[in-house]
Amino acid sequence: MSKIEEVKALVEAGKSKKIAAAVQEALDAGDKAQDILDAMVASMSVVGDKFSAGEIFVPEMLIAAKSMSKGVEVLKPVMAGDTSNSLGTCIMGTVAGDLHDIGKNLVVMMLESAGFDMVDLGVDVAAEKFVQAVKDNDNVVLVACSGLLTTTMPALKEAVQTVKAAFPDMKVIVGGAPVTPEYAAEIGADGYAPDAGSAAVKAKELVA
Ligand code: B1M
Fold it and tell me: Would the keyword Metal-binding turn up in this protein's UniProt record (predicted)?
């Protein structure tokens, strides 16, 4: 089994104590950080499919998520870019009612690498909290909202519209598995991205 396949299997099996060493070994063996990350993301899809099929349950999803997060920690310093030129502050969070944070954390990591000063509000963030964070922080140029559940899509809409009502010129970017470019436009977001890498590209475009 290649090192990357090993990482993938460990995430799927939720072996959080072994994952950091396995990711480091994959890096040492010459695997690219992006390829290791892609493998872990693919593992989470497998985990999601098994959950949908009733083969595993919430606790298994949780330990797989914990393993992925530990793996990402090892990749973070490797993937960090040159952040000497700040593009401004970005407020980011997963919207109200939604506890998924792996995708959000990846977007935080990529936007940080792209040069944004990130303020991460965490998960289950009420619309007003995004507004408060814009008020509390200096030089906020972007608000980024993540949503992973179809049931929290209305909360995504509320977050965008509450921020826009308070700060009509503030740029807002949204994303997450159930979000489409059409939905993003419909709820008044300025930008949408399907993954963390393209979120960084889109975010830079929005504040240019
Ligand atoms: Co949840 N869960 N979960 N879950 N979970 C999903 C999302 C689900 C698709 C699984 C399934 O049924 N196949 C399903 C949602 C179905 C739907 O709404 N259509 C689901 C469900 C149903 C639930 C619960 C309701 C289960 C229950 O309790 N019965 C519950 C809800 C809890 C809540 O939030 N209120 C629940 C709970 C959980 C755990 C807590 C156990 C755990 C999350 C732990 C954590 O995040 N720390 C969990 C997990 C792990 C998953 C899956 C398996 C993996 C999610 C993940 O981390 N993916 C997921 C299945 C799946 O995704 N296939 C599933 C990897 C991550 C890198 O991808 O987050 O999509 P993702 O992020 C991507 C893009 O979406 C994008 O970039 C990232 C990658 O580059 N992106 C953005 C994300 N945010 C962005 C913002 C942007 C731009 C791009 O701009 C701002």
Answer: yes
